[in-house]
Amino acid sequence: MALHVSLVSADAEVWTGEASLVVAKTVEGEIGFMTGHEPVLAILAEGQVRITQTDGTKVLANAQDGFLSMEGDVLTIVAGNAALIA
């Protein structure tokens, strides 16, 4: 089983794919998501989103000003500004 992850900014889709783990920063602190996580709606804080793909490779992005939503192994991160880190 894998998480279906979508990271979008106000003007573009930044990254979409399957992941085994996603860690993001919210105004309440960092939170990690794996399959089977309970539903969550949280305000995104400025910081890194760390995505571990199902093959173990890592994707890093900076994100700020938005929210994230987790329900049924689908994680959607909507940010005012987001960009992949090379």
From TrEMBL:
Domain ATP synthase F1 complex delta/epsilon subunit N-terminal: 3-82
Annotated keywords: ATP synthesis, CF(1), Ion transport, Membrane, Transport
One Gene Ontology cellular component: proton-transporting ATP synthase complex
Compartment(s) where it occurs, according to its Swiss-Prot or TrEMBL record: Cell membrane
A GO term, aspect molecular function: proton-transporting ATP synthase activity, rotational mechanism
Main location: membrane
Top-rank taxon: Bacteria
Xref: NCBIfam families: PRK13442.1
Protein name per the record: ATP synthase F1 subcomplex epsilon subunit
